[in-house]
Amino acid sequence: MTVPRKRFGQNFLRDTNVISRILSNIAPAKNQLVIEIGPGQGALTAGLVSSGCDLTLIEIDRNLADSLGTIFPSSRLINEDVLTFDFAELGEGPFRVVGNLPYNISTPLLFKLFADRARFTDMHFMLQSEVVNRMTAKPSTRAYGRLSVMVQLYSEVEKLFEVPPEAFLPKPKVRSAIVRLKIRDHSIEKPARLEEVLKTAFSARRKTVRNALRKLLKENELIELGINPSWRPENLTPEQFMVCASFIEEKTT
Ligand code: SAM
Q1: Are residues 94 and 10 in the same domain?
Q2: Do 148 and 210 fall within a single domain?
Q3: What's the gap in Å between 61 CA and the centre of ligand 1?
Q4: Of 104, 103, 122, which Cα lies nearest the Cα of 114?
Q5: Residue 27 contacts by C-beta under 8 Å, 6 or more apart in sequence?
Q6: CATH number of the domain residue 224 falls in
Q7: Using one digit for the tens of pLDDT, what is the confidence trace for 34-68?
Q8: Which atom of ligand 1 lies at the shortest distance from residue 82's CA?
Q9: Could you give the CA distance from residue 226 to residue 232 in angstroms, rounded to a whole number?
Q10: Same domain for 125 and 151
Q11: What local confidence, expressed as pLDDT, does residue 2 receive?
Q12: Taking the CB of residue 177, how many other CB atoms lie within 10 A of it?
């Protein structure tokens, strides 16, 4: 067994009840195309392989990748950084994605997957619980922000259950949670515009929408879009943010 490497966020799952619960929520099936990101020492991999799914493993750590290749010879093994990996190399899919992710790569990875979402159907991730709470947060709550809006526009998101630090070796400092994301098939035409609106709105959370979005939308335009100018940014639903972004895009092009 190799020594866990902190820089790769290696906290290996040890609790067999938690592992079974994760696998039964994923419910992998024979011949489904599944990608596991960061399989590590194979805690989830063994159950995925025994389902008969068509499995691809993406692991950055050379030593771990070597032993995964020996233990799971029937799976496709890619020894690369998932953040720079081109998923087109694997074909059109549709793929299911699974991973107990290092917390420092979770947000950039999510956005990379969303940008390429036609290839993916659903994703099950172990993430920091606090991040899952932000992903699933409803409007008008403290946890609601840019991440909630983006995640909810791109997917149907559901927090499945929490996992305590004792389930891992070494123990992480924070609580974790399993989240399910089912990719939505509607398109988000201009994600860069949406990101601009969200950044502008949520960097002025305490202001009214009238003031927070002053540079992008006039008061009468907000009213035209069905948005009360006296609301705070956190009162707008993900769909209302998308409507604002489309409106701004149209008037500037
Ligand atoms: N899935 C295993 C488990 O549940 O025990 C390991 C989980 S551990 C939290 C995260 C895994 O992701 C480690 O094996 C680590 O080496 C791998 N990893 C970290 N950064 C990565 C990256 N950028 N690309 C691919 N794998 C990565």
Answers
A1: yes
A2: no
A3: 8
A4: 122
A5: none
A6: 1.10.8.100
A7: 999 999 999 999 999 999 999 999 999 999 999 99
A8: 24
A9: 14
A10: yes
A11: 67
A12: 20
Could you tell me the distance, in angstroms and rounded to a whole number, from the CA of residue 79 to the centre of ligand 1?
A: 11
Q: Which among 183, 203, 230 is the end of a domain?
A: 183
124, 200: one domain? no
Residue 63 placed within a domain: yes
Please name the residue whose Cα sits nearest to atom 14 of ligand 1.
40
**Positive/negative CA dihedral, 119, 125, 128, 129:** positive
Task: Tell the residue nearest (CA) to atom 22 of ligand 1.
Answer: 81
CB atoms within 10 A of CB 33: 19
- Taking only Cα atoms into account, the Rg of the chain, rounded to an integer number of angstroms, comes to 20
Take atom 23 of ligand 1 and give the residue whose Cα is closest.
Answer: 81
Cα–Cα distance, 86 to 95 (Å, whole number): 14
Q: Is 1 a domain residue?
A: no
Going by CA atoms, what residue is nearest to atom 20 of ligand 1?
8
For ligand 1, the distance from its centroid to the CA atom of residue 144, given in whole angstroms, is: 28
* Residues 172 and 235 placed together within one structural domain of the fold: no
**Number of domains within the chain:** 2
| CATH classification at residue 145 | 3.40.50.150
For ligand 1, residues with CB inside 6 Å are 8-13, 37-41, 43-44, 58-61, 64, 81-83, 100, 102, 105
Residue 197 structural domain: 191-251
Atom of ligand 1 nearest to the CA of 109: 23
Best probe residue, ligand 1, of 1, 3, 8 (max atoms within 8 Å of C-beta): 8
The string of pLDDT tens digits covering residues 118-160 is 999 999 999 999 999 999 999 999 999 999 999 999 999 999 9
Residue 200 pLDDT > 90, yes or no?
Answer: yes
Ligand 1 centre to CA of 42 (Å) is 10
